[in-house]
């Protein structure tokens, strides 16, 4: 882990000698760097269980969908990281018996995916660790700061969303 100092700037953290071209560039890079740091913390929770963060996200989405499951495209639309290849993720999760896929619907082009009991059990095992990581990842912020952060991130996503 890197050394932590209270006044360490992003420029210091990245060992960047040249200043950022603008405050907007610095904010964008800070957002991406922060997302990466937080993602690594969550990856350390799920990886010992044989999951990537993207696979964990698919399981979380399917658990939330309930017993009806979701079509593959609906899973893709709900992914945190939109760049993930859902079919490949589902292949690995199905091989591990964590999800099932069914084409026996009226429209056979649509594949409906469901989490298995084994997948639900794995998520139940991970839930306390994920909850603790959620809390520790934002523990340095007050409730008002967390609310402000959420509002700011929502504004950026809404403006840039497709």
In short:
With 162 residues, the chain is mostly helical. The chain contains 7 helices and 3 strands, in the order αααβααββαα. It has a 3-stranded antiparallel β-sheet with strand order 1-3-2.
Essential attributes:
162 residues, mainly alpha, Arc Repressor Mutant, subunit A, three-stranded antiparallel sheet, 60% helix, elongated
Structure notes:
- It contains 7 helices and 3 strands, in the order αααβααββαα.
- The longest helix is centred in the N-terminal third of the chain and has 24 residues.
- The relative contact order is 0.10.
- Strands 1-3-2 form a 3-stranded antiparallel β-sheet.
- It is elongated, with a radius of gyration of 19 Å.
- With 162 residues, the protein is mostly helical.
- The protein has a domain of 108 residues: Winged helix-like DNA-binding domain superfamily/Winged helix DNA-binding domain (Arc Repressor Mutant, subunit A, Orthogonal Bundle).
- The model has no long low-confidence stretch (mean pLDDT 90).
- The two termini are 36 Å apart.
Biggest beta-sheet profile: 3 strands, antiparallel
By CATH reckoning, the class of the domain at 22-129 would read Mainly Alpha
Helix content percent band:
55-70%
Q: Which ranges are low-confidence, i.e. pLDDT below 50, for 5 or more consecutive residues?
A: none
For the terminal residues, how far apart are their CA atoms?
36 Å
Number of strands: 3
The dominant shape is elongated
CATH 4th-level superfamily of the domain at 22-129: Winged helix-like DNA-binding domain superfamily/Winged helix DNA-binding domain
**Which range does the strand content fall in?**
5-15%
What is the number of helical segments per DSSP (H or I, 4+ residues)? 7
């Amino acid at each position: 882990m890197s050394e932590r100092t209270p006044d360490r700037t992003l420029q210091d953290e990245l060992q960047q000698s040249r200043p950022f071209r603008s405050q907007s560039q610095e904010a964008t890079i800070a957002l991406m760097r922060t997302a990466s740091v937080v993602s690594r913390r969550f990856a350390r929770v799920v990886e010992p269980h044989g999951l990537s963060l993207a696979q964990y996200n698919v399981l979380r989405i399917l658990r939330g969908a309930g017993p009806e499951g979701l079509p593959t495209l609906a899973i893709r639309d709900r992914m945190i990281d939109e760049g993930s290849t859902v079919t490949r993720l589902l292949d690995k999760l199905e091989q591990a018996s964590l999800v099932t896929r069914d084409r026996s619907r009226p429209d056979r082009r649509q594949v409906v995916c469901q989490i298995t009991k084994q997948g639900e059990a794995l998520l139940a095992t991970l839930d306390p660790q994920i909850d603790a990581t959620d809390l520790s990842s934002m523990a340095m912020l007050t409730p008002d700061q967390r609310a402000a952060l959420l509002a700011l991130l929502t504004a950026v996503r809404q403006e840039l969303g497709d």
